[in-house]
Design a protein that fits this description.
Layout: E1 3-9, E2 12-18, E3 44-45, E4 59-65, E5 72-77, E6 89-95, E7 107-111, E8 115-122, E9 125-131, E10 142-148, H1 152-160, E11 162-163, E12 168-169, E13 179-189, E14 192-195, E15 199-204, E16 210-217, H2 221-230, E17 233-237, E18 240-248
Antiparallel strand pairs: 1-2, 1-16, 2-18, 3-16, 4-15, 5-6, 5-13, 6-10, 7-8, 8-9, 9-10, 11-12, 13-14, 15-16, 17-18
Length: 256
């Protein structure tokens, strides 16, 4: 049962994830198209677990079931690796939540098909995020490509090759050697990253000191996907493979 625990202070997200294996809009004319199947990852609700090692002074504030995530994450990696994040990784996400942006980038870069995006870096990871076109009466979707071990040119080529209809990166924009790894429900809202459906506890001692813990059922690939979104490194959590990372989201974000 994956256990996700993360803590925000101001605009910083700290994420811990442990995994235990348990039983669009249409593209414009001339846009790349790619309907390559990607192995799906499912993550569903699981019984909640009260945190036995919670920091002293925290009190249980809320306990609630989360709805299934509506948006998606697609990941490409080098085949044959037991841990895909030891090699190069490329990911694509589309978010419909108005607060679903990727972390704030350090500078603006041109994207041939979509205008301009924001490039950011953290450790071995880099990303480009941009806003899509809004349908009447709706907020614009947020798109992003995330890479580990990739150059800025490779990220920009990937962004130019996004097939919005199928939510894929066409072969023309994927670095050589990367193959479809996994696709999963994934949602971002105010820096909160979640996969599938789960149960969330919030422990707090005021607005500036609190801890959120999410439990869900899935397989070991959920941990790899979480590391893509937290820019994290591998750790052991309660004897299981997990990740720890820190993500700085745009100034002014809030929420849990």
């Amino acid at each position: 049962m994956p256990i996700m625990a993360w803590r925000w202070r101001r605009a910083t997200v700290r994420a811990l994830v442990a995994v235990v294996t348990a039983t669009a809009s249409a593209g414009c004319g001339g846009a790349p198209r790619d309907a390559t199947p990607v192995p799906p990852v499912s993550a569903g609700a699981a019984p909640f677990v009260l945190a036995p090692d919670k920091p002293s002074g925290l009190f249980l504030e809320t306990l609630q079931a989360e709805p299934p995530a509506r948006d998606r994450l697609v990941v490409y990696a080098e085949p044959g690796r037991s841990d895909p994040l030891t090699g190069r990784v490329l990911a694509l996400t589309r978010q419909t939540d108005r607060n679903g942006e990727l972390p704030e980038g350090s500078r603006t870069v041109p994207i041939r098909r979509f205008g301009k995006g924001h490039l950011g870096r953290q450790g071995d990871f880099a990303w480009i995020g941009w806003n899509g076109t809004a349908r009447e009466g709706e907020d614009p979707p947020h798109y992003g490509v995330i890479g580990k071990g990739l150059t800025e040119r490779e990220l920009r080529s990937a962004a130019d090759a996004v097939d919005k209809e199928h939510l894929r990166i066409a072969r023309s924009g994927r670095p050589a050697g990367l193959r479809p790894f996994a696709e999963a429900p994934m949602a971002i809202s105010n820096g909160d990253v979640r996969f599938g459906a789960g149960t969330t506890q919030v422990w707090s001692r005021g607005p500036d000191a609190w801890l959120a813990v999410r439990t869900l059922r899935g397989d070991a690939r959920v941990e790899s996907l979480a590391r893509v979104m937290t820019f994290g490194g591998p750790v052991r959590i309660r004897g299981s493979a997990g990740t720890a990372g820190t993500v700085v989201f745009p100034a002014g974000t809030s929420g849990r």
